[in-house]
TrEMBL record:
The keyword Methyltransferase applies. Its EC number is 2.1.-.-. Keywords: Methyltransferase, Transferase. It is an enzyme of class 2 (transferase). InterPro entries: Methyltransf_25, SAM-dependent_MTases_sf. GO terms for molecular function: methyltransferase activity. This is Class I SAM-dependent methyltransferase. It holds the Pfam family Methyltransf_25.
Length: 284
């Protein structure tokens, strides 16, 4: 794990970067238009408000997994002060630097499945599908153990990710399926070619070809892959790492989670008296 400032100019096309950081390649495709779809807007401010509200102890520190272009870390840092932020994509970290306006976000280039900073945090969070972008249940389990190890006793892990029921509902009886939705606030259209396949026994992967079309007809495109992760499965992974489920919401305004919710927001606590989580646990 290195300071992003040391690696942000690297733009290799390989999965394993020159500096040894494994990256899925999402940022290489999406960094040029990510902020057109996921705007640094009122919704991001509401998310930052929610995270600041549930933080158990700001003095113990804060870490975001998959910071991307800083959509959430930047407004959160404006509220609570320093935020450490890891991402495997040098392209997304370069976009974060472009968006920064003096906020104390400490960007780190690394892969959270394999490594986290060698310190503890009062709150760690992964929002906007990041935990579902981890490519296998085994790697999600490793990531959960890394988190449990890096949480201070009494600290919380907050996950926001998509509700698999809504992916199936969006696709209806079609697989593959193509949908187009106008995004009014962004002033364009998002066309998605979706395909759900069984990637390991009992585990579904949602592969999307996203095409972002501007009003003038210009477009950007990229492929995104998510491991469909029901909240019950996330809970199981957390329990295996010694974390205890607490809050469950369907929106950052506090609406309850249900089958109709596009996403879930779940928090897990490391019990104050918990035994330290070992590297051996992370390797299982
Ligand atoms: C969907 S974006 C979310 C960005 C930001 N959190 C937001 O809410 O706008 C997911 C980010 O996670 C990063 N990412 C995915 N898997 C990762 C991993 N194993 N280690 C580090 N970063 C990862 C991607 O490069 C991407 O920037």
């Amino acid at each position: 794990m290195t300071d992003a400032s040391m690696t942000a100019t690297h733009s290799g096309g390989e999965v394993q970067g020159r500096d040894g950081v494994e990256d899925i390649g999402y940022g290489r495709e999406f960094a040029p238009f990510y902020d057109r779809i996921f705007q640094h807007d009122e919704a991001a401010e509401i998310t930052a408000d929610g995270l600041a509200r549930i933080h158990p102890d700001v003095a113990q520190g804060t870490l975001e997994l998959g910071v991307g272009t800083g959509r959430i870390a930047l407004p959160l840092a404006r509220r609570i002060g320093p935020v450490d932020a890891v991402d495997s994509s040098v392209e997304m970290l370069a976009a974060l630097e472009g968006n920064r306006d003096g906020e104390p976000v400490h960007a780190l280039h690394g892969n959270f499945v394999h490594e986290l900073p060698d310190r503890s945090y009062g709150m760690i969070f992964a929002v906007c599908q990041t935990m579902s972008m981890v490519g296998s249940r085994a790697d999600q389990r490793r990531a959960m153990h890394q988190v449990a190890q890096a949480l201070a006793p009494g600290g919380i892990f907050v996950v926001e990710t998509g509700n698999p029921l809504q992916v199936h509902s969006l696709m209806g009886a079609q697989n593959p399926a193509v949908t187009t939705v106008p995004l009014e606030a962004q002033g364009g259209w998002l066309t998605t070619y979706s395909q759900v396949t069984e990637s390991e026994p009992g585990v579904e992967t949602w592969r999307c070809r996203q095409i972002w079309i501007e009003r003038d007809g210009s477009f950007h495109t990229g492929v995104e892959q998510s491991l469909l992760t029901p909240v019950e499965v996330m809970d199981q992974l957390a329990a295996e790492a010694g974390l205890v489920p607490e809050l469950l919401f369907g929106t950052w305004s506090g609406a309850p989670y249900g089958d109709e919710a596009p996403l879930y927001i779940r928090s897990y606590r490391r019990p104050p008296e918990a035994e330290p989580v070992t590297r051996e646990g992370a390797a299982q």
